[in-house]
Write a structure and sequence with these properties.
2 copies of one chain form a homodimer. Chain A is of the alpha+beta class and about 475 residues long. The first copy, chain A, has helices at about 1-10, 20-30, 50-65, 80-85, 90-95, 120-130, 175-195, 240-245, 270-280, 310-320, 335-345, 355-360, 380-405, 415-425, 435-445, and strands at about 35, 45, 70, 80, 100-105, 105-115, 140-150, 160-170, 200-205, 215-225, 230-240, 250, 260, 260-270, 295-300, 325-330, 350-355, 360-365, 375, 410, 430-435, 450-455, 475-480. Chain A is globular and about 80 Å long. The first copy, chain A, starts with a helix and ends with a strand. The model of chain A is unreliable at about 1-10 (pLDDT under 50). The interface between A and B is large, with 58 and 58 residues.
Chain lengths: ~475, ~475
């Protein structure tokens, strides 16, 4: 009875998005078996299915990083308090939210160590050791690690006290080269988001008040979730020579003069899994873009007790594995239960194969994104499946782009912003800004939404700031955000 | 002048192994640019070249794990003190050497959190959440993470306060299945060591006193370093149902009865890089087995200012990249300087290409392991290079095996042990043991060497314990160890 109850629970409907988006999200991360809670608040177990998504993200991005000359390294987990304090803005930004190690074994440490919330200070200490000459530049480094930030409120993938990420850190002889790197890495992120995650993004610099602690410029990727809220999904920072000066990193130039080099850092995190869920998911659960789906095609044998069905499905699965990530579900569960479970897990394609299909030498392919069923000749699968997977990526991307467009409001006044949000719900508000922090705060106070970035794709919506009416400098993308 | 001085330093001879093995080791890890020290004792930067070796190790092992049904997960960094304390032996073994987090942001934590020294307790907490029925078993998990153990004395790769590793954790319905897993993973490690690292190992259970904290049985891999000392390079533990009972993990069996499952864990670490250095290295630096070498073939153009040389070397490098990890060194340094540097870095093959070679349509291939030079037809490289790489692996393995055999002493008495060690230097001592801890301590006291494992390949050296003279139960492998 308990067993049956448990089986039933797995196909039980999750909360609908319309009814309660936050609860829907929590249901999906649990029922798709992405994470499990632990006894430490904000620290989660990433389960095999969730971790496999991350591994696919890692593999694709790591290839892009290496193809552009970056090398992976590993920096220590610990930052001595005195090292964290070397760059003034940086310590102000991070010290309030770090975890402190005070004891090693039975002994109190002479100096507290924080667990890295980000590793600029560690890279700087290392650069100071290894960089002497212009010949040592540039260094293009990256690492895949976890970091810790002691957040007060937490949500799976979106905001956790420990999270996995990659952090790129580079150092260059000239400001131009470092700025170019900052932009190049943003472009790599954009390409990854669009091609692999099927998520359109708005990109541009953050305003002064919203920059990374210690950065001269922070470029950000902002994605729109299904509910119209913004999610910052990646950042690329240009540091100028501020860190180099704080950490005493100098090199001898070709002119035999000592000079300070210029730095960047850039990062993306397991938050991208949250972005996938909230961009593509639906009331049946997760919907995964094929590039990062742990299983791209789930083969479900129908009437599998009939002679030959299971063997044929097994042989077919092995054939598919030559060109896609296919798996067979030969468990004792009913086909209907399997359909629901693999929908919950967001598997892009389901292949159904029964005795009658075998006789006719075809099978049924069902798309997770549209639910569309196609009967396909068994001999045509090498051609059809890659096409369908590409089409699923394209459909997901188009849908997300349409959602973004539908919920992007161009506004000329605070009143208009409030009206649009009230009528159409959350979204990206494009409105002009004079560049003053007071007006950034003013918009937030009046409308509740904050600046996300100053999009590279500027539009001249009007000539004046929506807040003070003075001459506008930029069009800002404003939104409620996760 | 400073520039020239620096170039010179790179080709300066390192300390010879004979003169000072410990200093030789330190020189190699620094000059081959594997690691760099930081301001936190025992926490090192793993530099790109060192990390690339680790990435190749990871890739090969991860494939082996996945091919045997294991899935990767991610468990949190933190273990609450109360969770660490649940299994008595385990906490006794690890509590004295963990790092404690006491503050998050500005606030003192209600309960201290230790940074994982190993993750059995975290996996157990998770199993208790997700395992209810026999259908949920087995779970075959692994994770690639860093762990922290607050060691007093530290050495790069061999003993560091933070190190990288993989820890496999599995849970099974029966003791037999768990024991089988324990052995299977040891076998996978042996295969990896022999095939990919070219390192022969002695394997067998640890004695009772030397087991992992909380294990019923610990199987170990012991490798012999160039200086005759032992290095434990991997372990595979069988836990019985001890952890399950301590953590209240139960499942409903097919018979509808509640039962405790059985667990294993197994791990290998960045210490394997230390094993590579001390097994294959020589007075010119690192010698890397091809399977994990970041660069397998370094192409050095000779007289590269001559027309056509650089272009030909570039084209050749690209051709080689289709079947091996090839790179060209077109830097402004002299060929001799380049030869020395790539020898220091242990690149298995060097390919020299000059104007006269081009004319004759051949090149010179130089093996790092033997120094042997071969003139090879440019058209034969697709055939010759893979053969040479395989031959380098075989030669390294044979040499290491011969070193191990030459320094394995079969002894019948404590006197004989002392004499052999005094005459022939450190090595593996095979000698009989009665099974009593007092005699294990006795051997250590009398000869200075400790038990490494009870080799699976038992030999009947004599019938009596070398220490007490009573009937012997096992032949033990004893040695000085890192």
């Amino acid at each position: 009875m308990a067993e049956q109850g448990k089986q039933k629970k797995l196909v039980e409907a999750i909360t609908s998005m319309e009814q309660d988006f936050a609860q829907w999200y929590t249901d999906v991360v649990k029922k798709a078996e992405l994470v499990e809670y632990t006894s430490v608040k904000g620290c989660l177990v990433i389960r095999p299915y969730g971790y496999a998504i991350w591994e696919h993200m890692q593999r694709i991005m790591d290839e892009m990083f290496k193809a552009t000359g970056h090398e992976n390294v590993y920096m220590p987990l610990f930052i001595p308090e005195s090292l964290l304090e070397k760059e003034k803005d940086h310590v102000e930004g991070f010290a309030p939210e770090v975890a402190w190690v005070t004891h090693g074994g039975q002994e109190a440490l002479e100096e507290r160590l924080c667990i890295r919330p980000t590793s600029e200070t560690l890279f700087c200490e290392h650069y100071a050791h290894i960089i002497q000459s212009w010949r040592d530049l540039p260094k293009l480094y990256n690492q895949w690690v976890s970091v810790v930030r002691w957040e007060k409120t937490t949500r799976p993938f979106l905001r956790t006290r420990e999270f996995l990420w990659q952090e790129g850190h580079t150092i260059h002889a000239s400001a131009e080269e470092a700025m170019e790197e900052t932009r190049r890495m943003l472009e790599i992120y954009v390409r990854f988001f669009e091609e692999s995650l099927a998520i359109p993004v708005v990109t541009g610099p953050k305003t002064e008040s919203d920059k990374f602690a210690g950065a001269v410029t922070t470029l950000a990727l902002e994605a729109m979730m299904h509910d119209g809220k913004a999610l910052q999904t990646g950042t690329s920072h240009y540091f100028g020579d501020g860190f180099a000066k704080a950490f005493g990193i100098q090199y001898t130039g070709k002119d035999n003069q000592l000079a300070y080099p210029f730095q960047t850092s850039w990062g993306t995190t397991t938050r991208m899994i949250g972005a996938l869920i909230m961009t593509h998911g639906d009331d049946s659960g997760l919907v995964l873009p094929p590039a990062v789906a742990p299983i791209q095609v789930i083969v479900v044998p129908v009437a599998m007790q009939k002679p030959g069905v299971l063997e044929a499905a097994q042989a077919l699965t092995e054939r598919l594995q030559a060109f896609c990530r296919a798996r067979m579900d030969a468990s004792a569960n009913s086909p209907g239960w399997k359909f629901a479970q693999h929908e919950m897990k967001g598997v892009p394609l389901r292949l159904e194969l029964g005795p009658r299909d075998l006789e006719a030498q075809h099978c049924v392919l069902v798309r997770r994104d549209t639910g569309e069923k196609t009967i396909v000749d068994l001999h045509a699968l090498e051609e059809t499946i890659p096409q369908l997977l590409q089409s699923i990526r394209d459909t997901l991307y188009q849908r997300a782009l349409e959602n973004q467009k539908r919920h992007t409001y161009r506004c000329n006044s605070l009143e208009e912003i409030k009206r649009e949000l009230a009528e159409k719900g959350d979204g990206f508000v494009y409105a002009m800004w004079c560049g003053e922090e007071a007006c950034e705060d003013g918009v937030k106070e009046a409308t509740g939404i904050g600046s996300r970035c100053i999009p590279f794709a500027q539009e001249q919506i009007s000539g004046t700031c929506v807040c003070c009416g003075k001459t506008a400098k930029h069009m800002v993308c404003w939104a409620n955000a996760y």
